[in-house]
What we know:
It holds the Pfam family Aldolase. The protein is 39% helix and 16% strand. It is of the alpha/beta class.
Amino acid sequence: MTDSSVLDLAPVVPVVVVEDVADAVPLARALVAGGLRAIEVTLRTPAALDAIRAVADEVPDAVVGAGTVISPQNVADSVAAGARFLVSPGWTDTLLDAMKKSGVPFLPGVSTTSEVVALLERGVSEMKFFPAEAAGGVPYLKSLAGPLPQARFCPTGGVSLGSAPSYLALKNVGCVGGSWMLPADAVAAKDWARVETLAREAAGLK
Length: 206
């Protein structure tokens, strides 16, 4: 990773919710083996920071990041744990300042044109579009490309294997975020071979 753009690491960024820290390393290894190096671990569980730390320490080929970053404390804790990028569902001036000072790439979340313009005004041109499907999906992003061609997005939220290609075909989309390659039953069964197979399928998307 050049540490310059999260959007260019892979066509799909897995969005991971880790309940058991013991799953973090084998899960990350399966994703990397399938071709998905960028892994967003969401800060939605008590195990999240330990999971980021474990992946950063034990899976050198992974580029692990933190998702659901919603406060300066989240930013500090994530970077301290080894996160190499940050993703937020939305942004405020306070959160944006903390992410800018973190020293790692970040994708602040947007769902409206005004939020996009406000970020461009602050010198940020790479963003997460969330919740993608609920906020207008492919037609919405396609409409933004005309007046705001300098903005690039990672749509996340309701994106599936079936809909991902339509997003990736847009010139203002660098990658998509999703969790379909991590079905709950496969994770519960620790079926990492299935995760790897699904990851490889996702990595092959254009």
